[in-house]
Amino acid sequence: MKFFVDTADVGEIASLAETGLLDGVTTNPSLIAKSGRNFLEVVREIAEIVKGPVSAEVVAMDAPTMLREAEVLRKLARNICIKLPLTMEGLKACKALSDEGVMTNVTLCFSANQALLAAKAGATFVSPFIGRLDDISQDGMELIADIRLIYDNYDFKTEILAASVRHPVHVLAAAKIGADVATMPPAVIRALAGHPLTDKGLAGFAADWEKTGQTIL
Ligand code: E4P
Fold first, then answer.
1. Distance, CA of 156 to CA of 144 (rounded, Å)
2. Strand 125-128 vs strand 80-85: parallel, antiparallel, or unpaired?
3. Which of 11, 14, 82, 156 could form a disulfide with 119 if both were Cys (CB 3.0 to 4.6 A apart)?
4. Cα(190) to centroid of ligand 1, in Å?
5. What is the 29 CA–ligand 1 centroid distance (Å)?
């Protein structure tokens, strides 16, 4: 499973990239607003830090303008992935970009039929929003499972990018189903590493090691 971080905070991205475990980055207009930074500038910086796909989202509502925005975004770096909304206009723009070999991420996916359309439009990634479905008492993970089944039925190459991930259990469940990618807030990535028994065990080993009076270096 690939790990993307879902943030426009360059400091967080740089720190997580140092682990060598980061495969890409997703941003959206809300995350850009939260960063308080210039969109094009921050995306360019992110794409220098992480060599994998960096999703940058168009903001137009019609396909021709989306394609013009995509032109600007594509020029920022070679690893820019154009993020488009799951609307008929977004799908139209996605098809045009996919036909040109441009990486695309179709976002705001809330149904398996929408995901089917994204795959037919040749999307590189589809982003089903798990957390936002859970928020309205629908099962986000059921959506991931349905998309996995459909994509496997037809051997679609579009990668399932589990998005709107809120906690480690989302990551675990998405991994069990076979989502190709999970994009997570930095805190969730860090939380995956934590376990109280790891901390307790490590403290015990450190105390016992000290009793030996030895050093390795
Ligand atoms: C990622 O591409 C999405 O924009 C993001 O995961 C949305 O997450 P949220 O529902 O927590 O805003």
1. 14
2. unpaired
3. 156
4. 17
5. 10
* Mean pLDDT across 130-155: 98
Domains in the chain, ordered, with CATH?
2-212 (3.20.20.70)
Structure tokens at 214: 């030895």
Place of tokens 């349905």: 146
**Per-residue pLDDT, 204:** 98
28-80: per-residue pLDDT in tens? 999 999 999 999 999 999 999 999 999 999 999 999 999 999 999 999 999 99
Q: How far apart are CA 80 and CA 44, in angstroms?
A: 9
- Please tell me the residue having the least CA distance from ligand 1 atom 9: 164
Ligand 1-lining residues (CB < 6 angstroms):
6, 26, 28, 107, 127, 129, 131-132, 163-164, 183
C-alpha 198/C-alpha 109 separation (Å) is 37
